[in-house]
């Protein structure tokens, strides 16, 4: 059996794609400790980095915890949480997201409708004993 350049290129691209997709899966491995529960007060938030290097932000409420990736779905800018307005805002083009409504888009980037971008990707987190963990 012989390989052409095209076959070799396809194999290489398939391998790279699997590696990239695999890194996203590794980031959501269940049970990875993020922070001690006692370090995040009710109503508070905590920035952390996923295993795949992506930035994220978790929130603690009276009923539990939830988290989102903090890369804007418009162009990848780092979204910041503005507690006074209870919104996550991208300073690059002013897109805003509601973390208390599944990360949905409240306002699209300047010059664009909200429907042109996706909600923030959620990260599965939970309370496990004294820790907040992925999963």
Automatic annotation (TrEMBL):
Domain Rieske: from-to ranges: 32-134
InterPro entries: Rieske_2Fe-2S (IPR017941), Rieske_2Fe-2S_sf (IPR036922), TAT_signal (IPR006311)
Keywords, comma-separated and alphabetical: 2Fe-2S, Iron, Iron-sulfur, Metal-binding
GO molecular function, one term: 2 iron, 2 sulfur cluster binding
Protein name: Unannotated protein
Protein's organism: freshwater metagenome
């Amino acid at each position: 059996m012989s390989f052409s350049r095209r076959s070799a290129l396809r194999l290489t691209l398939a391998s790279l794609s699997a590696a990239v997709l695999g890194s996203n899966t590794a980031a959501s491995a269940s049970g990875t400790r993020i922070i001690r529960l006692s370090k995040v007060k009710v109503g508070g938030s905590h920035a952390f980095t996923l295993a795949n290097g992506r930035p994220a932000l978790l929130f603690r409420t009276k009923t539990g915890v939830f988290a989102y990736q903090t890369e804007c779905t418009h162009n990848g800018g780092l979204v910041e949480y503005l507690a006074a307005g209870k919104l996550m805002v991208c300073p690059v083009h002013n897109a805003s997201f509601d973390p208390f409504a599944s990360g949905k888009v409240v306002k699209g980037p300047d010059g664009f409708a909200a429907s042109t971008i996706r909600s923030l990707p959620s990260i599965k987190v939970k309370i496990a004993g004294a820790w907040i963990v992925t999963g």
